[in-house]
């Protein structure tokens, strides 16, 4: 009997890797992000490693950057989440499949249907990452001149969630009797038309699809703002987040779980998963060398632009192979500059190495031997800085195989990560309750995520 | 060398069968319409029969009828097209996958992306059935009080098509060079931002996905009105249609192909496929008996309501087991009443049988032995009433297996239907040209479907 807190692991797979140099890494697949055969194999590898879920971020436009930087991006062509995840459902059996969908640029009826359909197709493995869309340029693809205002986006998101979950509840779980003898296909008493009329949406319903296998697909949120954290506390069952230190992680964790207390939700019913960039070596030195190699593949022009932004000072004139010079005070964010200066000092990085680190990935990273990585993951778990991680891989397939072959067994040995899936659905594997149907189920002994 | 005109065959698979009694037929799967394992097997059977395509109709609401009739409907729960077709792409290799998507209730950026993604996932087998949405109740699920006006729907559809195809052309076919050495992933000269600003849409682009494998997925249209036929003539490569007699079929065919002449498109570049309900028996008598059995499974209450509507006269008081009595004149459509009276006389149907025929399927039907069905299909083909058919099956799996095992070999023997797929993509199998990329290709020797 395992009494230890269990780690939850997602893998960020759109982009297959966030690191801009990854597609050039020796032995990596340059087209990893846009090759269906590869993606099927990655999903199967994740399942072999007993990962909870495959996570697809999503952006409604080509990322906002000058063509000269964009041309180096391996994510400029990506599959669309619903179609890709439905295809991967057939290549896997237990892996959760989480798609990002925007509440700002979509319609609740379509989103409710697509997730319900994906949940049925995958046998109950769908999850919805609710975003209000971070890239402001997306608005230009949907008839707007500028992005919808932040507060308004979140108000719309909250109502969108109510409509979608209300549509998922259109049919009772046992509505479909298919009685060949009498010719009755479903019990009409078990169908409810939503008749929603709110500030943003008016949706009659019912949905034209049976209730999802999980009741509702698992709800995910990644907002960082006050409004984003509140939405997560009220509705989400997984929170993705970006935290750069254990202390930051603890603060975020306490904040969101505290908000859950206030709205009367059990803390266990939301799993907080910070994004972690993981580079595995057989030794610490080897892992560091891999990362240095990877960073060296970031183009210097884009790298130096990132460094200039972080410093609030034009860095293009610095000697690339010398240490970072003293930087005069400026109006730029002092904390950002100090973080960069401190990073250069700590890791003894040249200007070039520092710039390439920032142009690659500069957030939370676990770089080391398998035991060292497991130590850090366990530390975050025990310190209540997280309930697990959304793992970002350095390059594919090597970085993924290293994690599954070396880190996963180490986590399993420590009794903090599953050896076998506990159930058939994502919800069962995450030990999350099944939401009650607001129109048909009694309120006892059921989930608290409902409006 | 085959010189004969070739028949094109689609299969209507959402609903798996349009006949409301089908799920009750002896040996049929009652859940055929909503069972993924069955649907995969059906798609594989169609592929074994060398069908051109699997066609998913789509409706954005639960069909508009009273609960007491609705409760007998086996299509009230259906998969959503993009997710189902992406799942079926993995279970098949050559079968075309046509999804219906509404230009009235969707956004062009989303639709362009999803079809492009489906086309990449399926290796170039996607098709888009452009509809303006026939069910007026759909509007209630998208914040409207009533359906968008017909002419306005078609104006929006035309612009929607221009935007979607323009987004598909965002990247040249050879944009992605993935040069690991130089670090250039795509050639920026081969990316075009659409910058569309029109009456209905303003969409900057570019699309965040490579050009579809087929250039564009195959364009399908099913509009019957003047505006619908014009849209088909201007843009479509397949027209689905409902025609009840050979003469009607010829008129429609001549009308639409004549419209193509006027806009300067080659007649071959649009395949006209009327819907045909097909019931196969080893003999004519057996086929008729199957159909009578099937019709008898339609509930009498719904059936009599259909009959009353067609007659413009309340039929609920008629003796169900007697012939149709004389009907007094009324304001109802005279042609509809005459068609029904003539049908009852020709097939010597009782009131019950007539009502159940109307409640089942009363459009074009080929009911007979394999040779008789092939005769009729060949007749339509040679008489230029169609380029093939969109086959509607009576019940599943039996009706499908009968067609593939018995009718397909008969068509092949006559040299009017393929024995092997000609190509890898839907476009290749239909012998349709690949659309040129308006931003990157020269105008020579390429498709004429472009704006
Ligand atoms: C791990 C992670 C994944 C995210 N994925 C997406 C995404 O796919 N699409 C998107 O528009 N935003 C994404 N975001 C951004 C968040 O949705 C959110 O906009 C951002 O954290 C800023 O928070 P705020 O919107 O509450 O101000 C992601 C954030 C994190 C931390
Ligand atoms: C074979 C066939 C399939 C159709 N499938 C759909 C469909 O899936 N969704 C829909 O809204 N309309 C569908 N329609 C309806 C047409 O799109 C169109 O609305 C109808 O034929 C009336 O024509 P009009 O809209 O030009 O007046 C279909 C029609 C036919 C003949």
**Which strand order do you get reading across the main beta sheet of chain A?**
1-2-3-4-9-10-11-13
From the coordinates shown, what is the CATH architecture of the largest domain in chain A? Alpha-Beta Barrel
Q: Can you tell me the residue ranges of chain A where pLDDT is under 50 for at least 5 consecutive residues? A: none
* Through-space gap between termini of chain A: 36 Å
Biggest sheet of chain A: strands, sense, closure?
A: 8 strands, parallel, barrel
Helical percentage of chain A: 25-40%
Briefly, what CATH class of the largest domain in chain A? Alpha Beta
Tally of individual helices of chain A: 14
**What structural class should be given to the helix and strand makeup of chain A?**
alpha/beta
Instruction: Quote the CATH topology of the largest domain in chain A.
Output: TIM Barrel
CATH homologous superfamily (4th level) name of the largest domain in chain A: Luciferase-like domain
Number of strands of chain A: 13
Oligomer: homodimer
What's the alpha carbon Rg of chain A, rounded to whole Å?
23 Å
> What order do the SSEs of chain A take from the amino end to the carboxyl end, as H and E?
EHEHHEHEHEEEEEHEHEHHHHEHEHH
Small ligands present: flavin mononucleotide
Mean pLDDT of chain A: 95
């Amino acid at each position: 009997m395992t009494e230890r807190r269990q780690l939850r692991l997602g893998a960020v797979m759109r982009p297959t890797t966030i690191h801009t140099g990854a597609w050039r890494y020796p032995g990596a697949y340059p087209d990893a992000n846009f090759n269906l055969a590869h993606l099927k194999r990655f999903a199967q590898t994740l399942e072999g490693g007993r990962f909870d879920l495959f996570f697809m971020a999503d952006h409604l436009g080509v990322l906002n950057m000058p063509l000269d930087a964009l041309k180096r991006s391996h994510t400029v062509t990506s599959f669309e989440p619903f179609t890709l995840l439905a295809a991967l459902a057939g290549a896997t059996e237990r892996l959760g499949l989480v798609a990002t969908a925007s509440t700002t640029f979509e319609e609740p009826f379509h989103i409710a249907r697509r997730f319900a359909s994906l949940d049925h197709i995958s046998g109950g493995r769908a999850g919805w990452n609710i975003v209000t869309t971070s890239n402001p340029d997306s608005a230009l693809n949907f008839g707007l001149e500028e992005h919808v205002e932040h507060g308004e986006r979140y108000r719309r998101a909250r109502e969108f969630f109510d409509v979608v979950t209300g549509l998922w509840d259109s049919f009772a779980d046992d509505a479909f009797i298919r009685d060949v003898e009498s010719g009755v296909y479903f019990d009409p008493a078990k169908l409810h038309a939503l008749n929603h009329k709110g500030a943003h949406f008016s949706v009659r319903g019912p949905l034209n699809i049976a209730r999802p296998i999980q009741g509702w697909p698992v709800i995910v949120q990644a907002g960082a703002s006050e409004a984003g954290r509140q939405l997560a506390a009220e509705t989400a069952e997984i929170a993705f987040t970006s935290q750069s230190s254990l202390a930051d992680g603890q603060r975020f964790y306490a904040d969101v779980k505290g908000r859950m207390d206030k709205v009367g939700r059990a803390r266990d019913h939301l799993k907080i998963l910070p994004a972690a960039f993981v580079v595995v070596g057989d030794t610490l030195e080897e892992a560091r060398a891999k990362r240095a190699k990877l960073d060296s593949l970031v183009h210097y022009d884009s790298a130096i632009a990132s460094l200039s932004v972080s410093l609030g000072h034009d860095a293009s004139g610095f000697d690339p192979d010398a240490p970072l010079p003293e930087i005069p005070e400026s109006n730029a964010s002092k904390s950002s500059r100090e973080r960069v200066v401190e990073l250069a000092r700590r890791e003894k990085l040249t200007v070039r190495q520092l710039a390439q680190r920032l142009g690659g990935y500069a957030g939370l990273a676990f770089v080391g031997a398998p035991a060292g990585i497991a130590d850090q993951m366990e530390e975050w778990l025990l310190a209540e800085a997280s309930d697990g991680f959304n793992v970002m891989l350095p390059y594919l397939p090597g970085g993924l195989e290293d994690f599954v072959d070396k880190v996963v067994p180490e986590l399993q040995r420590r009794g903090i990560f599953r050896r076998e899936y506990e159930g058939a659905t994502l919800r069962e594997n995450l030990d999350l309750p099944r939401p009650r149907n607001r129109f048909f189920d009694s309120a006892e002994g059921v989930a608290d995520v409902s409006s």
